[in-house]
Amino acid sequence: MNGKVTSLQFKSDHLRHTFELPVYLPPNYSPLYTYHLAIAQDGRDYFQLGRIGRKMEAAMEEGARDTIVVGVPYPSVEIRRKWYHPGNEAHHTYLQFMVKELLPFLEETYSTWRLAHGRMLMGDSLGASISLVAALSYPNSFSRVMMHSPYVDENVLHLVEENKEWNCFDIYHTIGTEETEVKTTNDSIEDFLTPNRRLHEIFKKGTARYFYNEFEGGHFWKYWEKDIPQALRFMFDI
């Protein structure tokens, strides 16, 4: 890999937490050029398990736009659920953190396109859910979403049905055919596949640039990691 993986320390007043953000910088990064920005929820997982730096670099070699990837790691499973879950009021605080703290900080640190279409959000499970909710809540800030096996409940379905901003989005959406009995972080067993198919039915009726895929497998990183190259090819139209 010719690019560079580094880290940034960032203190959030909204979340009262100091992050160590993993960052992938493209080969020959220069502040004289302007880059696309990708923000990954479950950031440490995307870097360590998903190898997002290598996969983004491979996508750029195939023609994807030069992109900086920033991961947002969670401090604990319990806090992750508190921040990401669409049924938890605290997720509103996390959205404020992303738009009012993190995004301005990244734009001050790096030279990035300050347009919604120059920014991509990605995540798995609850990380995918909060990525979608963030774009729906702030469509002028984010309009590209890459989702691996998102947690979908009535809150998410209602938001998508009521908010038509997503018709101008680029959306990649994948779910495993074996995700019918997923053990969640609060130890409940839930069907992810059925609500994802309901979400798919809504999206396919709209005008978004949208790709849906069902892979043979369950709710595990070994499947998402293999899917990332296809997801990036779609997101960058290569």
Automatic annotation (TrEMBL):
Gene3D superfamilies, per the entry: alpha/beta hydrolase (3.40.50.1820)
Q: Pfam families this protein is in?
A: Esterase
- For this entry, the protein name equals Enterochelin esterase
The UniProt entry, under PANTHER family, shows: ENTEROCHELIN ESTERASE-RELATED (PTHR48098), IRON(III) ENTEROBACTIN ESTERASE (PTHR48098:SF3)
